[in-house]
């Protein structure tokens, strides 16, 4: 059964209960942030902040203040899973994409592969962290932590097809149902107030065509799980190669 | 609508996978192995229910309580971040009592300094060095110092005859409550039980020098609304907001300050039944959701509201509507007076209001049209427009005027007393409504009860007691009593008949409450001997302290100028950051010889403390808490306080015990040698003296009662809760004495059946005509004052909105009600509220036929009926302990006949629960409850500054108003520097401000209707001439015009005009209008939130919102350091350059508004010396003295980076590494 979470900016008041609920549930440490010119803090996703609310002012004579929730999009065809050499990046039946920490070797292929710039590498533990869609909560019959907290129902959660059908019947425009390259996502964005503006760079600026980044490799795990050691070795080599290439391109 | 809750059940457990995912260090909290504990949120006043998941004393997670109708399972970020407040999680929490060992700063230094950094450099040298002590040692230290200060101040209970305050030849015994040398400030984070006990303590000390945060946040709301409608509280509830058709948010920002309150707003807005209109000087989170938004200049709210009325009267012609004519009968004005009022409103047309406010004319029209067309009178009471506000309306010298204007709009438009209509001042702190109701206030006793000011009032009270404690309808005051209280009586000799007007009703209510205080606190108020109240040789004794005391704004004068206040006892308050013109607070606290602070962190105020006592956060204690919409809920203990920290109630009572033991608490009655009261009544016909019983006089403060916890066994909040029910009429009914059950504990959100009291309204069977959704009141969730009424002034809902009527049977003799109800079937037209009946022990309707204005203050009492029966409250109480702990009173009554009497037990009359009393409210009482559309705040004729001043209403003043304005304007001319001398000149000439001399008398405006007055610091000379600053009406404010000798600096502390500011302003700076406010992420002074890592992560540093075009002019970019200065001081913060701040056109000139969040200070984590309140002026509202922190003049310029001081060396632990969770 596939599930989906939806962010509805029309209803978001930017209180950031979601951001802190995520941090508390996932036991992530608080970060040493500094002044933010627009309230967004931390300014982007980090290994310790799986979701943030981005604040943006739009000014055309009159001012608008929009809020955009960022987190893993949980793609239908997640490039990060394809890129992961060890099978640490996993997609579940529910549609959640999460990192199996014991398998993550910190190669950061997923970081490079993600068209939404979501997975973040943590220097301390040498692993990648990101939103799990609260797969642990979902399997325990709970709402994702951020959805559970949201006071104004700017976040909703349910069976993916039902959610989409309901939103459509209520006249919402949906982002994420179908998307090039990733097939669609299990985190959706829906709006009535900002129709046509979800992908408008002046407003929410969600990518119309989330491009898989150049050089993202096919799954190395196809080499066979049985030769895990080999795979890891290979991945390390690949990682070294990848980094070198990255340096070159700079 | 798509709702999470609707979809949640889709994830049934059965469908879930067996497999458990291993996420390593992420997530996977095993909540099934924890214990759930429910509590109420400690942050704002919405009153959200919380469920904590605990293991022993540790707390793992928190979620919203899905049963609670206020938050329906949801929380904001602060609610979520609550888990980091517990001692087990937060290393910065105080754990032990401590005494200071190093010296304190010299108070004079602060008065000289004007730069935040400079002040901090000085202050740092006196950072406290603490010595840990035991509670015993701490109390002993406090007691010793306290005694010394008392001795120094020569506080005395005995007063000789002076013919004014004391009219007894035998002398009077009372304390002057404004002379007590130790001020008390006890914050709005306290629970009701704590708030009541601290006020009770001050009363037993003989002090009215006590106040709290409410003075600085909603005092103008309380004064404005209470005087107009009866009570100063939100009339709607948060769930009720969902029924509103047009919601005008003016001077509030609930998405920031009360995030969860936005839930019904967002839902109804999406449903299309609610239009959200926001008018604000800053575009905040609420504005981001508005259907219609306008920037306006701060301090111009009356003008804006009057334009709505202008539109209503002159375009919509509402006064011709039948609904208007009908509704206006519920107020104290007739159509003729409405016509007079319209003449005032006429001055506020769209062009004029646009000039004052800066809102474009077309926008004004749109707002007014939307608002008026959806009002009660325009829709025949089917749809309603409502107003929400917070500090944006209150923190002005015109605060009460702003609130009055809002109330008048709602009265004129018939928007009050219906579901979906009303007035919604959202209170700040979680329990500020409760602490206000318990009156931690210098000018009232618990439940808004009058403070006595002379011995004649005490004599009148004693006479009232002798008449059997009657309601106003059964009261026959003597001529002396009529005179003493200013009652309207027609007397034949000493036989008077009383006109039962609002004054009589109020005095009988105050007296009833004084009696409640006497019986529950074990004190005495009256004469000795009791049966000769007017004998000039009888002693007058009052254990209630006389006179209004120093408040949270004026105490700096009490310390620095008057030298009355020498010490301070603080609970959960941080005035060093929260009070205006902070340097004066710092100076006051430095000068005080004893500063005792109980708090949970070492706050900025702690830097001035001599003794620091570790208190508990709300989740570590238990008690009742009153949310913004007057609902009482029970907040349970979730964990124990850390170390040796104690609940504040425990600290208070233990401190009291020590002070009492050391002879520091001594009642006037004890001084007078009166140790018992002969409770006496006089037979109305035979004049025979009947002694009903004797009661010993001894202050009662024993709350020991068994509990599962040791600290609660010593001081049990549940016993205090009962005492509040008995002592405070406003809260009477919250305890069910028949079943010994606190109704605040009820947790039933299900509908009532239609047959129950208010059942029809709460059954869900009626659909609201605006939303077409079921109407709910949630009458069984907690308890709501007064008498469990959920919508204040709800007299007509059934009749007018739903076209229905309901009935209630009072079978003969069944209930403890008077003849007018007994044995009758009565019609119900609105919400009645309810009382647990003392005969049946079941609920019966309170206000019949519904709840009108002022109800809860006006009452009838069944057990005292003139010529028939006389009864003390509860049938008499000889032992408060028995009352509180066992629910027992004496329960006796005196039955009267022409020739004799009989003392009988109330039980013989079928009364089983005498503590429930016999108050009732019949249509005659309800009819008296008229709203004061017109309400003069200054009345009569008196001598001010040697001049005879007559205060006149608008009706008369309108003839002089324009001449006053033109006389004043021509004095000022075009020179801003003339403004101050002209104000001075006028005050010296006429004795009073906003006044003019005519025929040998000064005529001064009574302010019976509000009008626009410019703020004390006005950016526009033109407007300040046409709409002069009213601030100078208040004696306290005149200190800045006529500075006292000891503090000549005050003469330069307020810049009345831009001209005055520019004299102090650096050349490269630009003048601005400043406002301050808090943020969604931070709590008030920041003492709680800056020490909470989750919240500080979101907004770590201090900053100011700066309008983009202004920043451009000054070359300021986001993140730059700016200097912001005012006539008081200058501070350094970061710049947030934004289009969310306005550039306004005010009377042809550009005015920029800059906003500074104020939750930053120099103590704890995430600290800066740049306390925003260093900038704010302490000029106060002319009625309540709330400071004008929402509009003042200042300047801004770019500052060097090194001026910016920000530190966070007190690192909070890394949650993951330290295993916080």
Automatic annotation (TrEMBL), chain A:
[4Fe-4S] cluster 4 binds at residues 84, 104, 107, 110. One of its GO terms (biological process) is cellular respiration. Residues 9-23, 63-159 form the 4Fe-4S ferredoxin-type domain. This is Formate dehydrogenase subunit beta. The keyword Magnesium does not apply. Signal peptide: none annotated. Binds 4 [4Fe-4S] clusters per subunit. Keywords: 4Fe-4S, Iron, Iron-sulfur, Membrane, Metal-binding, Repeat, Transmembrane, Transmembrane helix. [4Fe-4S] cluster 2 binds at residues 22, 131, 134, 146. InterPro entries: 4Fe4S_Fe-S-bd, 4Fe4S_Fe_S_CS, FDH_Electron_Transfer_Unit, Formate_DH_Fe-S_su. GO terms for molecular function: 4 iron, 4 sulfur cluster binding; metal ion binding; oxidoreductase activity. It comes from Ignicoccus pacificus DSM 13166. The keyword tRNA-binding does not apply. [4Fe-4S] cluster 3 binds at residues 72, 75, 80, 114. Its cofactor is [4Fe-4S] cluster. [4Fe-4S] cluster 1 binds at residues 12, 15, 18, 150. The chain crosses the membrane at residues 223-242. It is found in: Cell envelope.
